[in-house]
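does this look right to u?? adenosine-5'-diphosphate version
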Amino acid sequence: MPPSSPILKVAVPTPLRRSFDYLVGQSIIPAIGARVRVPFGRQQLVGVVIDHIAESTTPSNKLKPILETIDDQPLLPAHLFKLLLWASDYYLHPVGDVFNTCLPGLLNKGEPAILEPEYYWQLTEEGEQAFSNLGKNAVKQHKILNWALQHQGVISPEHLNQLELIPSELKPLTEKGWLIKKQIELSAKPYTQSNQPLALNPEQHDAVSAMQQSIGQFHGFLLDGVTGSGKTEVYLQLIEQVLIKKQQVLVLVPEIGLTPQTVQRFQRRFNCDIAMLHSGLTDRQRLNIWLKAKQGLTSIVIGTRSALFTPFSDLGLIVVDEEHDVSYKQQDGFRYSARDLAILRARDEQAPIVLGSATPSMESVHNVNQGKLTHLTLRKRAADAKPPHIKVLDIRQRHLENGLSQALLDNMKRHLENGNQCLVFLNRRGFAPSLMCHGCGWIADCQRCDKHMTLHLQQKRLHCHHCDKQVFMPKKCPECGEPELFPIGLGTERLEQALIKAFPNKTVVRIDRDSTRRKQAMQDYVTAIKNNEVDILVGTQMLAKGHHFPNLTMVAVVDIDGCLFSADFRATERTAQLLTQVAGRAGRADKPGEVVIQTHHPEHPLLLNLFTQDYQSLSQQILSERQAGQLPPYTSMALFRAEASTLQYPMEFLNEVSKQLGQVPGLDCFGPFPAPMAKRAGKMRAQLLCQAEQRGLIQRAIKPVISIIEQLPSARKVRWSIDIDPQDP
Ligand code: ADP
Ligand code: ZN
Ligand code: ZN
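got this back:
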């Protein structure tokens, strides 16, 4: 065979942890990193060439030629390509599925990697006149023209998504001359200048200048700044320095933090192309952003976890905001940590990276202790706001009405009477966590999970939050026929009703996953809160994160006791983060804030430590406990999970996995055990925990036997996965 025709190692999207070899055949030789279409069994799949090799271990009569070369050059920049291969190796995840997860959907389908023109629509004078004369029945036209009038006469592709319209629905209006369709310029809009940066306080100034010196090289920073200390302002001013050098910036934000405000703040500041990757985009929009960033036409990309895989022509900085947030770890399929991979990416691409948080993860604090990250602190709130005053309210033997003590209500009253807002925090949505029969004690359990079903009274439904099963609320007990069923426990919906009753003249809004299902809903609530149209906010952790409400002066934490006693070794860290973040919502502007925490355990060390010291000293304490207990980040973990219709199969499979791993020195296997919630969505689940003192040992132990594990007969009876660095073992 002439040397010009190599054998191709191709990453094909299959569940197997290997690549597949193909011949070039009649096609032009695809570059390493190019997509190819290949025959796979009876299907045709799109894969990525990951190597050229001279010889294959597959017998030559079994090798098939590829069907087509899709890209005439590598699809990904070399650094990113390497990162994905590394990630497949580290997370022990099938390489084909890694590409499949990380590439935009259209590229996985084999669409050409070509930027397609995008359009926007401009309102004409005729359109404006037509709007006032529209008949009653022209509902859609009214909606479209009204939108344009409210948005400086423009309907952008983003707006179309928000209006839930497709382009062809605007055609009747362009034909009438009411709108004009125009192409969006694809050329780069270079950074020119920023608008009104704030004058930095000394701590912010020191942080920016320390990081600025690392532009153009790799350096990891932990920006550890209390809530409201002006971290975002620090990012913005650092980003400006990177833009001046004509480099690009990637900003990762948690799922929930991707509110329009974040983006507006960037757009107001910088006059350049800023792309926002979020779940509301069409496949085409997603691909266009991907291509524009790759070609250097976009200067800033802001997005959640998966935005990490955006290619850049010249990446100059990565910001990971709220780096402790659990949403950076993908919990199914390719279970990567975007924060951890971001550090690797920054190192590969010679760019600085900033991990920002008011409550850094133990992993990052540990990295600071080890000198791997440079610690920058903002201890003072920006704009002279004072830290909130914290009061632990002992509710032992006090009367509680719907979970609320009189002392808490009195406290709220004081703040409300001064015209301020209160936030009442409870991390449990629905009306009540369960429904019970007064006649026989029957409890509404989920038949598919080891859990009760949550009562949603407004919708008159029982809903399992673990498998999503929903049924109508029964009118009488299914066991004994008793009509008197009563809710047990407290959810946000019940709390909302109780607060409306307690403060009949005040406006109460509830913010949780149920009340914000509608697109725009969160945005509308946030606007109403900022405009002071709301007095009391009731909600879950959705309210704990990132928001800045200047009139909010009191935060009430209603029920934290459940979080204080948990078997999960990360519970202390998570509870400390949650409490600190929620508390941080109080008193963010010139008004002093107060936090009141109701508890039956006022002497609990976590509560004492958190509020007599600060998060920083508490985190050192948590770390020494982790070290003593030989737990992450001092050790590495991997979790094998398996599920089937009966517990026997996952236990059998995991037992064999454990045998395969054998006696590797330095590696400990625990289990298999039934999972903490053994039954979920009708499946029985078990897990096997592997722990090693040395990073990388887990991979070295599992890799040699992975294909044996994949082919175990018992593997066929279960669904199984490996989770490296699991967040919830
Ligand atoms: P964080 O991201 O740490 O929560 P933000 O950057 O949102 O904090 O800042 C909190 C508030 O303080 C915002 O209203 C912001 O405009 C204001 N702020 C930040 N830095 C300054 C500064 N140097 N001078 C005045 N106000 C500031
Ligand atoms: Zn009953
Ligand atoms: Zn369920």
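The radius of gyration is 28 Å. idk if thats expected tbh
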